[in-house]
Amino acid sequence: MSSINKQKIVDSVPQKGFFGHPKGLFTLFFTEFWERFSYYGMRAILVYYMYYEVSKGGLGLEEGTALAIMSIYGSLVYMSGVIGGWLADRIFGTSKAVFYGGILIMFGHIALSFPGSLSMFFVSMVLIVLGTGLLKPNVSTVVGEMYAENDTRRDAAFSIFYMGINMGAFLAPLLTGALMKSYGFHWGFALAAIGMFFGLVVFLITKKKSLGLAGTYVPNPLNAAEKKKYGSLTALVVIALAVILGITIPNGMFTLDVFINLVGIFGILAPTIYFIIMYRSPKTTATERSRVLAYIPLFIAAVMFWAIQEQGSTILAAYADKRTQLDFMGIEISPAWFQSLNPLFIILLAPIFAGMWVKLGDRQPTIPQKFAMGLLFAGLSFLVILLPGYFSGEDALVSPLWLVLSYFIVVLGELMLSPVGLSATTKLAPEAFSAQTMSLWFLASAGAQALNAQLVRFYSADSEMLYFGSIGGAAIALSIILFLLAPKIQVFMKGVK
Ligand code: GLU
Ligand code: ASP
Predict the structure, then answer these.
(1) Are residues 296 and 402 in the same domain?
(2) Do 433 and 278 meet the contact criterion of CB atoms below 8 Å apart?
(3) How many domains does the chain have?
(4) CATH code for the domain in which residue 69 is found
(5) What is the band of 190 on the pLDDT scale with cuts at 50, 70, 90?
(6) How close is the Cα of 347 to the center of ligand 2, in Å?
(7) Residue closest by Cα to atom 3 of ligand 2
(8) Is there a single domain that holds both residue 212 and residue 235?
(9) Kind and range of the H or E element at 99?
(10) If you take atom 9 of ligand 1, which residue's CA is the nearest one?
(11) Alpha carbon separation from 36 to 7, 44, 267, 303, 348 (Å, rounded)
(12) What pLDDT, in 10s, does the model give residues 196-206?
């Protein structure tokens, strides 16, 4: 988008109205609040829905399969952000992408709200994957569009937005978890659908007055020849997929395992291809090429970090259900409620971390050092959850406080890595790829969960110490390597801080 267009957008947005920020931030804050409410509310009970027996309202899948599906689901949700970002950039503009995404997500949750079968679940999964790909990266892009390039409120805007994400993620599991317990899974999923409905209402009602032209531009529209080219390409891919699936599914060749492996390969391949394209593009300058190289180890660290963080809603969710005492001080806890701990700690600690960075000023750790520390805490969070097995054996029910501690430690890492991650991506990705940096950053989460789909299959209650120990240990080893490499990476970053 030209800088003239950028300025025109900023001029069209009312610059006040929400705590000293453009009132459009209110619109985006609540849209994303409700979207994350629906996503994390659904995820908090989905894993149980998959592996609980049919007599308990579940689908009766094997636990390992359920955990692997949770992971590929999470991976695909973030992978589809690449398509969502591209569609907004070249066809719809961000605002329409957010709206269409919200509709798909809402129908995805509605599909789960009716007692149904495994096929209904897969329909819902496709809708939510596509919908989140359209909504999630684009809603964040609109936040950035409302502020002039040098507006000092920009960082604060993203911090406020990040609070919205985590407030939605905090509230939802408490409610869907309670509904699951008292009325059954489908009421929980229905609440997720209602949440997304509220998000859409807020977006539609307030966007005209508050967002101005933000989100309405198509930054890099397709020309006629490209339209034709991409149109035929899409048709070709759809036909090829239909043929391949049409042959392999009835033959029993396209099993869940095959699918999991394919997503696994793609999760690693997609960012690799991205890096090669960025590195080799004629539009990338020599300085930018060096920055791409510096970004690779940071990206790998992010993948490992998110792999552990995301296991909070898979492996640790199963741990909460099966290994944890759920009647605690007279209260009967829903295992889904543990999913509220991560966002709760984020909300409580984010301001403290932000204040700490301001106070430290120039003495704060460098970006690679922050990534290394993020990874260190992730590793420690897994070593901590190994301890109850060590002290009380792998069969005894353990105190829920162990899980609380583990979620707390991973959040210390998340606050080191997550808020700087996106801005580091923006600064290190070549200028020609700036429209796609959001999707590039989400590919770390996609890769992480593709990796998880492989890892979670090794988890079983009687090997839990080995499982947590080896993954936690690997993260700590990687973190030490990153610490040692940090000064070198800083040189390759060519002045980026
Ligand atoms: N939990 C954050 C969110 O939902 C981070 C996402 C990620 O990068 O994986 O926005
Ligand atoms: N902390 C995550 C994110 O920032 C939310 C979660 O894992 O529940 O949104």
Answers:
(1) yes
(2) yes
(3) 3
(4) 1.20.1250.20
(5) very high
(6) 10
(7) 166
(8) no
(9) helix 94-113
(10) 445
(11) 30, 12, 22, 21, 18
(12) 999 999 999 99
3-state DSSP assignment of residue 17: strand
- Entry field: residues in the chain: 497
User: Cα of 166 to ligand 2 centre, how many Å?
Assistant: 6
Q: What is the pLDDT of residues 34-90, one digit of tens each?
A: 999 999 999 999 999 999 999 999 999 999 999 999 999 999 999 999 999 999 989
* Whether 134 and 277 share a structural domain: no
My answer on whether 191 and 270 are in the same domain is no
Q: What would the pLDDT profile of 347-382 be if each residue is shown by its tens digit?
A: 999 999 999 998 998 899 999 999 999 999 999 999
Burial class (CB in 10 A: 0-12, 13-18, 19+), 294: buried
Specify whether the CB–CB gap between 135 and 442 falls below 8 A: no
CA atoms within 13 A on the CB side of 358: 8
Q: Quote the ligand 2 centre to 229 CA distance (angstroms).
A: 38
Nearest ligand to residue 444 Cα: 1
Nearest to 494 by CA among 230, 201, 285: 285
Q: Which of 234, 251, 268 is the last residue of a domain?
A: 251
> Where residue 385 falls among pLDDT bands split at 50, 70, 90?
very high
In sign, the C-alpha dihedral spanning 334, 335, 336, 337 is: positive
Instruction: Please report which ligand is nearest the Cα atom of 44.
Output: 2
Nearest CA to ligand 1 atom 2: 165
398 - beta bridge partners?
324
Closest ligand 2 atom to 339 CA? 8
Both 193 and 320 in one domain: the answer is: no
Domain residue limits at 156: 1-221
- Please calculate the CA angle 285-287-289 and round it to the nearest 5 degrees: 70
Residues flanking ligand 1, CB < 6 Å:
36, 165, 306, 418, 442, 445
Q: Are 176 and 336 in contact (CB under 8 A)?
A: yes
Pocket of ligand 2 (CB under 6 A): 40, 165-166, 169, 342-343, 346, 414
* Whether pTM exceeds 0.85: yes
